[in-house]
Specification:
heterodimer; A: 3 helices; 9 strands; B: 3 helices; 8 strands; 22% helix; 38% strand
Amino acid sequence: MPQIPASINGVNIDFAQSVNKNVDQKLINALKHCIKPNIAKGYSLTKIYISSANDSHKLPSRHVQGAGKAVDISRINNLKMSVYYKTNKTVKEVTNAIQSTFETFSNKRENFGPLLKMKLGTKHNVSGHNDHIHISVN
Amino acid sequence: MKYLVIPFMTLILSCSVNANDKVEKIYDPHLVNILMFSEMAELNKLQPNIEKNLWVKIYKVPDKTPNDCFPESHGICKYVYYIAVSQFDENPIVDAYRLGVFGEIVNYKWTQITELDTAVINIEINEYSKEAITYNKKLKDKVSKYKLLLKPGDITLTKN
């Protein structure tokens, strides 16, 4: 089964201890699509923190559906979204850019975070997700 | 004064404990029957080589309607079938339906499809329950084939 690598497009990835990195290839393709050093113009992305992948969830969550089709990203350049999204320009712009760019991915499904709450390309009412980005694929 | 306060406080505490202990009763007869008498089939565990786009569970509850399947005795001739369907998502669309009254569903077969949030399951239904057929040799069992098409918010059962 494909595994989320330690680096994508030159951006380092830290993982929570509980993370199962074995996921669906489409999810890795999604990360390659929206995790890039220059994803936000004028700001540098060097590291993300994945707090959950194919783990820690129960069905019907896509985290554990099939080969693992969802990932949670909760820190940008070592800074927690929960603390710094509103006060740190880099955290905000990079977070927003990841969410916006994911919307252009062909197999996008859920895209929940501080900027957007979208499902299959349309607005979706879901609570929470202000301290992390949850993205999933079809 | 203290002779009045102590009994009063005891009464207040007693009332509040009773209020917290109150357990909500469920009155929906469908739900009560499912919770108490149903057998559940988790269809996603079948045909593991086929990737499923929806989460599907079927519940069968003995049909209590009087029947002639068990002369000189009493038994389950048919079942009431319910179906619950969910998307795979954090905040999924979830629906439940009363599928109908059937003898017994004896076979489920998923179809490999690529359409999002859709499932096609071919099912075979006996006219009577297995117990009824075993008990009453006069019953002529007939197997009917159906196609179950599921989408969020909509299911159809079509006879093949």
